[in-house]
Specification:
Number of helices: 12
Mean pLDDT: 84
Largest sheet: none
Number of domains: 1
Oligomer: single chain
Low-confidence stretches: 282-287
Helix content: over 70%
Number of strands: 0
Length: about 290
């Protein structure tokens, strides 16, 4: 079930990115980000009413607020970067988030990372450099913003994983929208443009795609280890290539594919390695 949920989430995420890319020519990316966060509340309201608001109960309000701040920064960088960067390249660079998460775990959590995982991290960042090719091509602000977004999102992922131990996926997604909306609105306000009814409809579709994708991803992480569901995430690259070609006439180059494979391969290895180390730790504890 966890694998199926992640597979559907991958499709929905890329579909959302396609809508963002398409609408960014009509509305500022920051305004689009606001509607993604704010309208997500209304998408989740039926689930809140169904449980008589019990889904809003949480003991992790501080973590939810931290996640909201992190998510706001990551979303603003990502949406702006997405508006000016090819879809497949955005997806490939987005895979680097677990690499940053591993490095941050070493710095802030004192986690011990040995030679194998350090090698995987280096290979992953090499893949990022292959895609960006600094010094060979014009780097551009778009890809840089995607990498910055991935770094911020990696911290948010660690927070989400902690919250899944006690909060439901709907709870996590609902509080994300609550904390995200005012923060992103502040950034969007200077660029505000009243959307037409048609544009508003697209914004609601965008919010629905993003909210359901986020909820399914949260539930997938809740049901299974990251190492189990991580390989499925690479399907984003396939969908991004397809939709990028159909809607924007974009074809990812050789470097994007090579970089994506290196990044994804390294992050998958790290996830599997961490899962095995946890299993060994549990066994030793029981013994």
């Amino acid at each position: 079930m966890a694998i199926a949920l992640m597979a559907v989430a991958a499709i929905l995420f890329v579909a959302m990115h396609t809508v963002v890319r398409s609408m960014s020519g009509q509305l500022h990316p920051f305004e689009i980000a606001f509607f993604r966060a704010f309208l997500g509340l209304f998408v989740l309201l039926p689930f809140v009413f169904k449980d008589n608001f019990s889904v809003l109960k949480t003991k992790n309000i501080k973590l939810h607020s931290l996640r909201g701040i992190l998510n706001a920064g990551a979303m603003l960088c990502f949406f702006y970067g997405l508006s000016i960067t090819p879809l497949a390249q955005v997806t490939a660079l987005g895979f680097s988030a677990p690499l940053f998460a591993t490095v941050l775990a070493v710095i802030f959590l004192g986690e011990v990372v040995r030679v194998r995982r350090w090698t995987a991290i280096i290979i992953g960042f090499l893949g990022t450099l292959i895609i960006l090719r600094p010094g060979m091509v014009d780097l551009g602000i778009g890809p840089l913003l995607i990498v910055i977004s991935a770094a911020i999102w990696s911290v948010a992922l660690m927070v989400i994983k902690v919250m899944t131990r006690s909060d439901s996926s709907v709870t996590i997604s609902f509080y994300a929208s609550i904390f995200l909306s005012p923060l992103v609105f502040i950034a969007a306000f200077p660029f505000w443009k009243l959307p037409s009814w048609e544009q508003f409809g697209w914004m609601f579709l965008l919010a629905a795609l993003g909210t359901f994708a986020q909820t399914l991803m949260n539930q997938s992480l809740k049901l299974a280890d990251t190492s189990v569901v991580m390989p499925v995430d690479f399907s984003k690259m396939i969908w991004a290539t397809l939709l990028g070609f159909v809607f924007f006439d974009e074809v990812p180059d050789f470097y994007t594919w090579v970089g994506a494979i290196l990044i994804f391969g390294s992050t998958t290895y790290i996830a599997i390695r961490e899962s095995r180390l946890k299993q060994v730790s549990v066994i030793k504890t029981r013994v």
